[in-house]
């Protein structure tokens, strides 16, 4: 289970092979059998430069993916970064392209789609963490991501300053309500997970009441998800736990009640909206033909 809040590590870009595969899929989706408009109207020898322009205030994220798009299309396209990944700004040029005009035009939409989506997530993550900066709580993401793009979207969360929960079902134990029902109770589920867990591996279990919290603690859960608790309920859960396990608040949490939730004393707040409702940051490509 990846909880970056537990380690003060640098933001590392995802594995290159994973990114290449995602970029290839996106290019295949957009270009298909060929960019017929560009092929018909732009001579192969035409050269151009272009600026990628950020048109709204927010956190820049996705420059390495933008570079990967044009590298796959045509290695002759050079990408010069004009702004730093993870920097906050507004109405600025963030990258300069130079090379064959056809490749720049064919890659424009795919590159912009990546950078606007990832920047939107990074901006939402930055906003959430600023709201809780006066507390000890960390905002973490969920698995509510765009299918096939999780590695990129969780990277964007880290760029924005929030933290990652588990990357997938193989990455950590999270025993939820339906697992508990199928297993025959919290104690049975937690005990079974501990038998399977590697040394030091986190076993998290979801609870919906203070009574279930006590059972989870007695069963040895090391991380407990408090599902849809009121603020008063969260404060009582923190008091009752008394440091015996870390606590994650989840369910019905938005930016409007994020501060109130953080001030209850929980360790983590999972916010699916970081990825499923983040929106996008506006970018455009401004091209100029060169002789």
CATH second-level architecture of the largest domain: Alpha-Beta Complex
Distance between the termini: 54 Å
- CATH names the topology of the largest domain as Aldehyde Oxidoreductase, domain 3
Structural class: alpha/beta
| Sequence of strands across the biggest β-sheet | 6-11-10-9-8-7
Shape: elongated
Stretches where pLDDT falls below 50 for ≥5 residues? 4-9
H/E series? HHEEHEEEHEHEHHEHEHEHEHE
Broad CATH class of the largest domain: Alpha Beta
Q: In the CATH hierarchy, what is the superfamily of the largest domain? A: Quinolinate phosphoribosyl transferase, N-terminal domain
Largest sheet: 6 strands, parallel
SS strand fraction: 15-25%
Q: Provide the number of structural domains.
A: 2
Whole-number mean pLDDT: 94
Radius of gyration: 23 Å
Helix content: 40-55%
Q: What's the total number of strands?
A: 12
Total number of helical segments?
11
Describe the protein's architecture and organization.
Helix content is 42%, strand content 20%. By secondary structure, the protein is α/β, with parallel strands linked by helices. The chain folds into 2 domains: 9-124 and 279-290, Aldehyde Oxidoreductase, domain 3, CATH 3.90.1170; 163-270, Aldolase class I (TIM Barrel, Alpha-Beta Barrel), CATH 3.20.20.70. The strands form 3 sheets. It has a 6-stranded parallel β-sheet with strand order 6-11-10-9-8-7. The protein has a 4-stranded antiparallel β-sheet with strand order 3-5-1-12, with helices on one face. The longest helix is centred in the middle third of the chain and has 31 residues, at 101-131. Residues 4-9 have low confidence and may be disordered.
